[in-house]
Amino acid sequence: MSATGSATAATGGRPLRAGLIGLGMMGRHHARNLRSLEGVELVAVADPQGDPHGAAAGYDVLPDAAALIAAGIDYAVIAVPTQFHRDVALAFAEAGVHCLVEKPLAFDIDEAEEIATVYERAGLVGAVGYIERYNPALQEMRRRLADGQLGEIYQISTRRQGGFPARIADVGVVKDLATHDLDLTAWVADSDFSDVAAFSTRRSGREDEDMVSVSGRLRNGTVTSHLVNWLSPFKERTTVVTGEKGALVADTVNADLSFHANAEATTNLWESMASFRGVSEGDMVRYSLRRTEPLATEHAAFRDAVNGDASNIVTMREGLQTVRAVEAVLRSAQEGRMVPVDQVHLP
């Protein structure tokens, strides 16, 4: 029996014992959710820098992954900086510990491939923390797309803009923020990226890029565009999917989803234009959604995966594919050309 299938039996009916490494800006939210998650007990936390946000009151802050393993955990959440993901994830894998790794899976493709392969071979549950997938607006959008509400999908456009997050020191805006848009776009369309073309710039004085504009194409033919920066004086998180029957617009800041119908107005066209598919403004509906915290939903999904139902997690293999897309974006911006995603592993 695999480690996934035997997880519930192995705990003897007791709550799963969880550990958290990394108590920074994101780690504090993981701690809060783990402490309130039904069927899970947060038994230990670790961070070599201590607990700057007071997220782990009542816990001894351990120094590293080895100390978490020694505490006897069933699974771990990794919320350390991206450059440390590989070493920490592999330490947990060697100890037979299931892992939820904050996005992106790893710093580069080779590291992501290594992590994904090790977890798969060990039969361990491995997932990547792409929190946007659990936003109620995007969950409902994906359901409606799968049901065919828009018919053929033509284009997916995202905008992710806001102020600079002071917590980021090791990567630029592509690996920190654009990775969300690349992942959610492939997910809602159920198709990976084929090619990307990108332009980036540096305006904040940091070594890494802080603005990027990406045009892409998915394997199913859908065209995409993504505007991402952390130099805007306002916060914007939108995803627009346009298809033959209209458009779905998700505002993930407010967890709102609306539908703009294509009224398909009849037009009188001469014969040479008869095949043209016109578009006209139709009704607009904003859906009523049950709004739950995306991170709480993500944690519940990972708990369920450790207990045998892995249907709602972002797998490490999916995380690897997003790392490939991210690397293609960076290479395109550097070299000034369109880059096929499947070729980014080449020197």
TrEMBL record:
GO MF terms held by the record: nucleotide binding
Domain (Gfo/Idh/MocA-like oxidoreductase N-terminal) ranges: 17-130
Domain annotation Gfo/Idh/MocA-like oxidoreductase C-terminal: ranges: 143-341
Family designation: Belongs to the Gfo/Idh/MocA family.
Name of the protein this chain belongs to: Dehydrogenase
Organism in which the protein naturally occurs: Brachybacterium endophyticum
